[in-house]
Amino acid sequence: MTEITRTDLTSARELIAFRIGAQEFCVDIMSVREIRGWTPATALPQSPGFVRGVVNLRGAVLPIVDLAARLGFAPAEPTARHVIIVAQIETRVVGLLVDAVSDILTVTDDLIQAAPDVASDMVKTFVRGVLAIDRRMISLIALDHLLPAVEREAA
Amino acid sequence: MDPMAAIKQTFFQECEEQLAELEAGLLAIQDGGYDGETVNAVFRAVHSIKGGAGAFSLDDLVHFAHVFETALDHVRSGRLAPSHEVLGTMLRAADALADLVRAARDDGSVDAGRCDALADALRALDPDAAQADEEADGDDGEIIDFQPVPLDQSIFDDDLATGSVPSQSLFLIRFKPKPVLYAKANEAAVLLRELAGLGEMTVACDSSALPLLSELDPEGGYLSWSIELKTEQDEAAVREIFEFVEWDCDLEIERQIGEAPGEPDVAALIEKMQAAVEAELSALGPTPIPVSEAEPAVIDFAKAREKKSLQSAGDQGAQRADPALAGAAAQTTIRVDLDRVDRLINLVGELVINQAMLAQRVQEAGLARASGVASGLDELEQLTREIQDSVMAIRAQPVKSVFQRMPRLVREVGAMTGKLVRLVTEGEKTEVDKTVIERLADPLTHMIRNAIDHGLETPEARLAAGKPEEGLVHLSAAHRSGRIVIEVSDDGAGINRARVKALAIGKGLIPADAALTDDEIDNLIFLPGFSTAQTISDISGRGVGMDVVRRSIQALGGRISITSRPGHGSTFTMSLPLTLAVLDGMVVTVAEQTLVVPLTAIVETLQPKVADVHGFGGGARVIAIREHFTPLIDVGRELAYRQGDADPLSCVALLVECEGGFRSALLVDAILGQRQVVIKSLEANYRHVQGIAAATILGDGRVALILDVDAVVASSRADASFEQLLATAG
Amino acid sequence: MNKTVLTVDDSRTMRDMLMLALSDAGYRVVQAEDGLHGLEVLQGETPDVIVTDINMPRMDGFGFIEGVRGDERHRAIPILVLTTESDAEKKDRARRAGATGWIVKPFDPVKLVAAIRRVAA
């Protein structure tokens, strides 16, 4: 249950840690393109509540995912102090709305524990593992499923 | 890349062009609108394919092209009349030739039986078939035996045949050029030099025929030579030297048995000979032009080119020195990597957005319209727009590339359905953005299939109806009010409205008692779920119905509709934007959101009055526009920006027209203005959003969504009772 | 200085092949797409040899040869006719128009260069 995930014991990687409410999360720095301040988004109709809308990222249209709402917390009420983590998910570039960026961590894979089995769908879907650092618990987020699935054209 | 591989690639590209030319030419001949040059062009196309194929040892292709070329030559020489049957065979042969080209290109295979049968059919066209067979067999061998040979540097070495040679022969050659030899720019001296390359040679020049200077004919030939050549080469090699001049000289070549004369000094001989020739030439007048006189012409030429073409940026000196450049300067087009053009288009898009942002900042800063800054901005806007138009024009292409695929489709579908079809195309040169062209082929293919399969009657039915046996499918393209309009019409039976309506009722798409106009019935074929196996044969079908065609056209910001006259045929009309990069739109606000409505959809804008708006049960509302009741669609509610209904009196209505001519009024809060916007994809980073066509970035740097008018109208109609709305929409 | 060859052929493939064979052999190559274009190019170039196709749009090889021979400045330039049409009639017509020699397509690069050497001073 607390089995350590071993992919490559010698590999060190960097993670960006951020806060949502009182909890801490992190994502692999390799998928992060930049970090920006919050700017008001243009709402998208017919979209799930966790999609805040779209903003202009140097000429490209960037969807903003409210990570709090996505992870099952109360939706964020963004202020100028909120932060958007611009991340690459496969071919798409997405903005993740979080409260604040807290840290950059260098960890080896053996420090990443499997997520505790709390049987929550949210955890199963998005949390790849947890790290215990300075008595903090930081959840490692997998980005793959953050966006709603691409709708298939009904043929 | 290996240079031969690169040339092979060029060859296949060129083949595609020639195949298109071939088909177009054959069709023109079929239509009677042709002249000798058309026949020549057709012949040339096949001839060039054969020539290139020979160079790459593509034997199947060479064979077929040769048989084809022979048949075409009969037409060219007037021995074979281009009858309907002859052209039918040739068009099918053109298709087979295309298949052979592609098989050779992709290392694929072709239906050999079909090609052989067509080759036989082509041979059978020969007015004198037996003779043609012989000719074909004779020529084939000669054409195929070519293999590109890497050049051996040794052939340039002048000191060739030296060293010990076991079997040498002695040739006695008498060579007396006629004047005409020189008129064709052959040179006795050059021939003698080549001859000397074969072995050891002694030359005696006989100038006894040289007249007095006053009697010299400038074009005359007065010198003759006696040559003794000791060589290991055979007589054929010696004769080959004189191959080009044998008609233009007196030539005797005798092979001597016995001892060759002693050691000659070839270089000295040539020198002597050259001197003799030059003496003749300098005495005579027309001499090759000295280089110094040719020089100014080069510069003039380069200057003239500079004005005409884009690429003469290099300096003129370099142009003369570099053969590649000199060759390029003679052309007026350049090839550019598409990525570069796309990058340029993206950058211009950014420029347009930036210009708009700047304009807005200036306005916000409260600068007067008449200020220098404002007028400078106006000029900038004008320039930006011109740059954008010019850049878009780079990517514009004639629709020909798509249209020229259709004749083959028509032949195939015609053959499958047993219908006789003639395709007439018009407006092939109409230009549209490359991205639009690429996405045009599928819907067009489907519409043409549909026109033949469902539109046209069988030959028997046509004759019975008093029509010509051969059905007509007309395909046209034209620019109309900033869009491209493509029409596919047939002269078939038209839509069977009773059947279409019965089918729609049977499928529950409309209520049994729906009162529909003829136009509305015709356009039922675009409803999702209308097309099924029962109405769509294998040919039109491929599992998609007209609703998919409509959706793919809508996805391009286009519209499609059909009009039909019973007994006279149907016309599909689709209109598409000229580009997928920019759009003219009306910027509006709806529930505090800024939206862009494509200008092409908007018929007019109006201010609703209280007396004009009527509730219509089930939450639907209509608005009376010049005594015509039109469905009123609250965009804010449709997009779920707000729950309750907007008050029409504080709003603006946009009268829009969707495909099929249905009109609706879209209720928005306010109109901010009209402007050109750069289209940005939502799908690139997110996904398609129902009711939204795309996004753009406005002057304030924020994203605004572009409304998909057709989708919003369609979804509102789905919400409301269809029957009620139709009753009022008519 | 390298000798210059003007190639006149409507086929891009053939022009490319000639370019490859001739530039490999050390010639400088200037290209034209048909007879008319060839005459245009001659306004600014004085090649040592011309290699021309016969069957071309706008102006065919015969017309081109007559054009070259009719021009004082170019009448002395040797012209080789490049054609698959090896029959005597075409060759004879080209000769009568003033062609210096001919090369039968598909050409062998070695024979091509040999033919050029047989006419180029």
Provide the spatial order of strands within the biggest beta sheet of chain B.
14-18-19-17-16-15
Q: Kindly report the spatial arrangement of strands forming the biggest sheet of chain C.
A: 2-1-3-4-5
Total count of strands of chain C: 5
Largest inter-chain contact set: B-C, 59 and 62 residues
Q: Quickly count the helices of chain B.
A: 27
Name of the CATH class of the largest domain in chain B: Alpha Beta
What's the CATH H-level homologous superfamily of chain C?
Response regulator
Q: What level of helicity do the residues of chain B show?
A: 40-55%
Amount of beta strand of chain B: 15-25%
The N- and C-terminal alpha carbons of chain C lie at a distance of 13 Å
Number of domains of chain C: 1
Q: Which spans of chain B have pLDDT < 50 for at least 5 consecutive residues?
A: 130-165, 284-331, 532-543, 721-730
- Please state the overall shape of chain C, judged from the principal axes of the Cα atoms: globular
Question: What is the global morphology of chain B?
Answer: elongated
Q: Largest sheet of chain C, if any? A: 5 strands, parallel
| Helix fraction bin of chain C | 40-55%
The level-1 CATH class of chain C: Alpha Beta
Kindly report the CATH topology of chain C. Answer: Rossmann fold
Number of strands of chain B: 22
- Count of discrete domains of chain B: 5
Written overview of the protein:
The complex is a heterotrimer of chains A (155), B (730) and C (121). With 155 residues, chain A is mainly β. Chain A is built from 2 helices and 11 strands, in the order E-E-E-E-E-H-E-E-E-E-H-E-E. Helices cover 6% and strands 47% of the residues of chain A. Chain A is globular. The N terminus and C terminus of chain A are likely disordered. With 730 residues, chain B is an alpha+beta fold. A 6-stranded mixed β-sheet of chain B has the order 14-18-19-17-16-15. In chain B, strands 6-8-9-11-10 form a 5-stranded mixed β-sheet. In chain B, helix 1 packs antiparallel against helix 2, helix 2 runs antiparallel to helix 3 and helix 8 packs antiparallel against helix 10. The longest helix of chain B has 28 residues. The C terminus of chain B is likely disordered. Chain C has a single domain, classed as 3-Layer(aba) Sandwich (Rossmann fold), CATH 3.40.50.2300. Chain C has 5 helices and 5 strands, in the order βαβαβαβαβα. In chain C, strand 1, helix 1 and strand 2 form a beta-alpha-beta unit. In chain C, helix 2 packs parallel to helix 3. The chains are: A mainly beta (155), B alpha+beta (730), C alpha/beta (121). Chains B and C meet through helix 1, helix 2, helix 8, helix 11 and helix 13 of B and helix 1, strand 2, helix 2, strand 5 and helix 5 of C.
